[in-house]
Amino acid sequence: MRALLVVNHKATTTSGRVRDVLVQALSNVVHLTVEHTRRRGHAASLAQQAAADGMDVVVTLGGDGTVNEAVNGLLAHGTGPDAPALGVVPGGSTNVFARALGLPSDCVEATGVLLEALRANRFRTIGLGRADDRYFTFCAGLGIDAEVIARVERARGDGGNSTSLQYLRALAGQYFLDTDRRKTRITLEQAAGEADENLATVVVQNTSPWTFLGSRRVDACPDASFDLGLDLLGMRALPFTGTSKAMLRMLFPGGRPGKPGGPHGRRVLRLHNVTEFGLRATEPVAFQLDGDYLGAREKVRFTAVPSALRVFC
Length: 313
Hints:
Blueprint lengths: L1 E6 L8 H12 L3 E6 L5 H11 L4 E6 L1 H11 L10 E6 L5 H5 L6 H14 L2 E9 L2 E3 L2 E4 L1 H14 L6 H15 L7 E5 L4 E5 L1 E5 L5 E3 L2 E3 L11 E6 L4 H12 L16 E7 L1 E14 L2 E21 L1
Parallel strand pairs: 1-2, 1-3, 3-4, 4-16
Antiparallel strand pairs: 5-6, 5-16, 7-10, 7-15, 8-9, 8-15, 10-13, 11-12, 13-14, 15-16
């Protein structure tokens, strides 16, 4: 089996020691090539070339952004059984995708799981989401969550750390200081022609959870699954009381008898297992995929892509 290891040495918890241990371990199981990312988008180029070269699997050592790039490179020419499989060793700050797959958050333990899966040829086939021309593995957002991510990325550029505390500070700063909660409105356009024209922010999930706050799952759409279509949470308004309740229900998403899990109420729009829909804003709005800020968009088309990717896990 031929494999490419893509290492993002700038990821939060990736180190030379971890890389060396992983390289030695993988070399005992596969014929291994190692590449290091040098710029944003480089993992996609490396994975695309690996697919063109007939590699069997691409393994990432990095965070969710590295995984997203690798997936888009692997599937640049389409999904299907002929595309290389993916292996993931968590090396970022949150590692949502790896943890959603059930992998340990510890990179050494995750390496052990990956080695067992490679030896046994054990993989899982999962669905993905697609936003316009780009795949995502676990979440997308248009609105305040993307604004928060942009704020954290700016802080990291100034030497800050991507920690749970950093995200909480960014959320508070964005909510109270920077977000105009009345100006921009987002319209949801469904394939059947239905529309909801009065949304303030939207989260899309391809699986559960949406993210993690330390060890705690944060779930806007707790019923989302790799095995189904896409789930959506839209907030029609962001008043302090209602937003606080929604955040608490994301942190404690378990529902009561007769009540759904996660955020709900008259200011909340929820969709489950949706195949296709569009979002259109009155002006460009912050946009993120898999926890990476991708700039501002006025419109995005979302599609569920079933059985899109094989993952060793």
